[in-house]
Amino acid sequence: MPKADDPNQTTPKPGQRKAGAATKTPTRTEMVHEALRQAIIEQQLSPGARLPEDMIGDSFGTSRTIAREALLRLSVEGLVDLRPNRGAFVANPTLDEGRDIFVVRRGLERMVVLQLAGQLNADQIAELQRMLDHEEMTGARDEREAIRLAGEFHLRLAEMTGNKLLVHYLRETVSRCSLVLTIYGRPHSVDCGIDEHRQIIEALIAGQGDQAADLMEHHIEQVAGRALLETRKPRSVQEVLSSYATRIAQD
Amino acid sequence: MPKADDPNQTTPKPGQRKAGAATKTPTRTEMVHEALRQAIIEQQLSPGARLPEDMIGDSFGTSRTIAREALLRLSVEGLVDLRPNRGAFVANPTLDEGRDIFVVRRGLERMVVLQLAGQLNADQIAELQRMLDHEEMTGARDEREAIRLAGEFHLRLAEMTGNKLLVHYLRETVSRCSLVLTIYGRPHSVDCGIDEHRQIIEALIAGQGDQAADLMEHHIEQVAGRALLETRKPRSVQEVLSSYATRIAQD
DNA sequence: CAAAAAAAGATCGCATGCAATCTTGACATG
DNA sequence: CATGTCAAGATTGCATGCGATCTTTTTTTG
Fold first, then answer.
1. A78 contacts chain B (CB < 8 A)
2. How far is the C-alpha of A87 from the C-alpha of B184, rounded, in Å?
3. Which residues on A lie below 8 Å from B101 (Cβ)?
4. Which SS3 state, helix, strand or coil, does residue A73 take?
5. CA distance linking residue A75 with residue A45, whole number of Å
6. Which sequence spans correspond to the domains of chain A?
7. What is the pLDDT of residues B27-83, one digit of tens each?
8. Straight-line distance from CA B25 to C1' C30, in Å?
C-alpha cells in the first residue's frame, strides 16, 4: 500500500517543476490517481474495500480535494464504485459484469488486429518480437511480472494502430479485466499464452486480418474461460457477502 | 446556452430530495455535467471555445468546485480538452481523430448487433419498431430532433444487450461522433438512413448476426463517409485557426 | 521604433471549513 | 428481550480563500 508522509503539508509549494523539462508536470492529482490505480489492479486493495477521502489524503499527504478527484477519475474507469453520500469503494463487479467486460475486450482487441494486419513496419515487428522474448524469459520466474508484461503487449499492439480512443478504451478494459481476475481468477493461471501471442503476430505480418482476428478472439476467450467459467473457486465469506450487500444497497 | 440564476446562492440547501422517491438524487455536479454535455453535443458551445470554471459556476449558480468536477468528467468523455494550468476548452478533434472515433464506433456497434442477433424478444422488437416509426414521422419535420432520435435508436439497441460497459462506451462514442459531425459534417445531412435501421432489425430478428454486423458496419461507414470524406466543407476561419493554435500550443 | 523586461490581470491548483447526510450506538418502550 | 427512536460520530457535498501559473499589457531599453 502506498504511503508517503509528504513533508510539504505545512508549506505547500505545488510548483516545483523545473528539473526534467521533458516531463509534462505530473500534477498531484495524477500521481495519486495512478498510485491508487496500481494499488487496485495489483490487488493491494481488495474489491469492496472502503476508500474514505480523508484516509487517502492522509496517506499521500494531500488534502481531500486531491483524493476526491482521483476517486472520480477511477470511478469513470470502473475501478472504483462511487456511492453518493456514502463514499468510494474498490469496485467489486459481479461475475456477469466480469463476463461483459471480457466481451468488450474481445471486441476491442479484434479491432486492433484488423487495423494492424499487413500494416506493421520492420521496427514495430522487431519491437513486438523483443517483447515476446522478454515475456518468455520472465514467464517461469516472476508470475506477477509476467502478467504485467502480457498486458503491456496487448496495449502496445493497440498503440501501434495510432487510434487514441481505441488505446484509451482498451487500457481501461484491460484494467477492469485485471480487477475481475483478482476476484474470480484462479491464483496460478498464467493468463496469456505466449505461443498465442506469437501466432497472432505471424498472422499480422502475413497480412491475414481475419485470421489474426480469430486468433485474438480465441486468445481472449481462453483467458476469460480459464478464469470465469471453468473453476468457480471458493471465495471467502466476506467477498460473497459484500457482493450481496452492494446489490441490496443499489435499490 | 444554459443559464440558471439559482436563487439558493445565499442559502444553499443541497438536500431537497423528497418528491419523487424513485429519482436517485441528481446531485448538482451531475446536473451541471449533463447540461454542459447537452450544450456541447447540440452545438450550443462550439469546438475550441474556452470554458472557465468561474464562468460555468456563475452560469449555474454554483461554485467552481462543481464546474471543475463537471469539466473533469467531460474531459474523460472526450468532449472537453483540459490543459493543465490553462483551463478547459470544448474539444476540437482533428479530422484524423474524427475518423478514429468512427472506427471505434463501428466496432462497438458491431459488437452490439452480434450480441443481439436472434436474442430479441417480442417486447424489444415492438419497441424498436415503434422507435423507427417515430423516427420516420419526425424525419422530415424537425431535423435536429431526428438526429437525436437516430442516436437514441443506436443506444437503445446497445442497452438491450444488457452489457453495461458496452453501453457506456457506445454512449461516449456517439457523443464524440456528434461533436465530430458538428465540426466536419455537412449541415443538412440526415445522418442515419431509416431504411438501413429497418434492415438491421430484420437481420437481427432473423438471427443472422453476420448479416446484421455487415449492415451495421456499412451503415456507420455511410454516416462517416458522408461527413468526413466526401465533402470537405469550407470551415470558418476561426475554426481553422483555433485548430492550428491548439496544435502550436501543445508544443 | 522594435524588442525585451516587468507589472497587472485572469485563471487555475489545492487546502480548508461548514452544513448536510449517513452510520452507529445508546436509550427508551412494548 | 426484541424493536423502534434519537443523539453522537464519521464522512461526504459544496463553497471559498490563497498562492502559483499563464496571459496580456505596460514600461523600459537598445
1. yes
2. 42
3. 165
4. helix
5. 15
6. 28-90, 95-230
7. 788 889 999 999 998 888 989 999 999 999 999 999 999 999 999 999 999 999 999
8. 36
DSSP A108-167: HHHHHHHHHTTT--HHHHHHHHHHHHHHHHHHTT-HHHHHHHHHHHHHHHHHTTT-HHHH
Architecture (CATH level 2) of domain B26-90: Orthogonal Bundle (1.10)
Question: Is the CB of B103 less than 8 angstroms away from the CB of A166?
Answer: yes
DSSP state of B88: E
Q: CA nearest B174: which of B230, B236, B96, B108?
A: B108
- Grid coordinates in use for A232? 468457480
d(CA A20, CA A243): 45
% of chain A exceeding 90 in pLDDT = 57
The residue among B58, B64, B2 whose CA lies nearest residue B29 is: B64
- The residues facing B159 across adjacent strands are none
Least confident of A211-225, B76-90, B181-195, B227-241: B227-241
Question: How many other CB atoms sit within 10 Å of the CB of residue A172?
Answer: 22
Q: Which of A27, A97, A111 sits opposite B164 (nearest CB)?
A: A97
The fold of the A95-230 domain, in CATH, is Four Helix Bundle (Hemerythrin (Met), subunit A) (1.20.120)
Contact indicator for A109, A213 with CB cutoff of 8 Å: no
Rounded CA gap, B22 and B17, in Å?
Answer: 10
> What ranges make up the beta strands (E) of chain A?
80-83, 87-90
CB contacts of B71 in chain A (<8 Å) are none
Confirm if B49 and B90 have CB atoms less than 8 A apart: yes
CA dist B185 and B137 (Å) reads 23
Name the CATH topology of A28-90. Arc Repressor Mutant, subunit A (1.10.10)
Q: Which residue of B has its CA nearest to A78?
A: B165
Q: Alpha-carbon distance B147 to B149, whole Å?
A: 5
Question: Is there contact between B11 and strand C, defined as CB under 7 Å from any strand atom?
Answer: no
> pLDDT, tens digit, for every residue of A102-155?
999 999 999 999 999 999 999 999 999 999 998 888 866 777 787 788 889 999
Cα gap B124→B241, rounded to integer Å: 47
